[in-house]
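User: Please predict the structure of the protein below. I'd like the answer in structure-token form so I can feed it into my own downstream comparison script.

Assistant: Understood. Taking the following sequence of 241 residues as input:
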Amino acid sequence: MKLATGVIPARYQSQRFPGKPLALIQGKPMIQRVYEQAREARFLERLIIATDDEKILKVASGFGAEVQMTSPLHNSGTERVAEVAKQIRTSIVINIQGDEPLLRGEMIDDLVKALQDETIPMATLAAREKDMDLLYDNNVIKVAADREGFALNFSRSPLPLEAPDYFLQHIGIYGFQKEFLLALCKMPPSKSEKEENLEQLRAVDNGYRIKIIETQFSTLSVDSPQDIIRVEKFLDDGAND
């Protein structure tokens, strides 16, 4: 089994939620919660927080994380992860979004297992969502997959349904073959990537296959302060136990 390096990109400045990585969830900074959840993965050789902010560096170092300072000029978390990836020895890199405080170690491990197949350049997660009202929520990213489990499209708009009672909701945790990650970040943004504001479409538009791994675990990403309340309620209810 080839192990992977996990990288958590963490930017302090955010248009919708400045200081988001340090927002408290049940008294603990979100970046710490993400880090501790990611540490539960069995197939990570190394876990790094990549940031461009001294405040995040101080907090993350305080709870014992390995932290690397990165350029403030990156346009995306993927670019920040790629900067770190240039210096690591593993051939598999997992981009662990810092706004996914409900992630599970098993989710990361599933991506690492998929990428043991070196012909798969990239993999990501999706979960079956049965709340059909969310199909029309532009903040919920939908994914359509082919019969072999590779992405056909990602969109903020509704996509053709897998079944009448659920759709596949994309979960923004990505696994890469390292060399593909570095190559992807050198490609110019694609037309649909810019239209949808979804960077994974760059790979699709350039003809690369993204393996979709279905997970049984629920997750809630944090995009606004209101989402903190939703996550705390989710934790209080024990919905992912």
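That's the full token string. The first strand starts at residue 4 and ends at 10.
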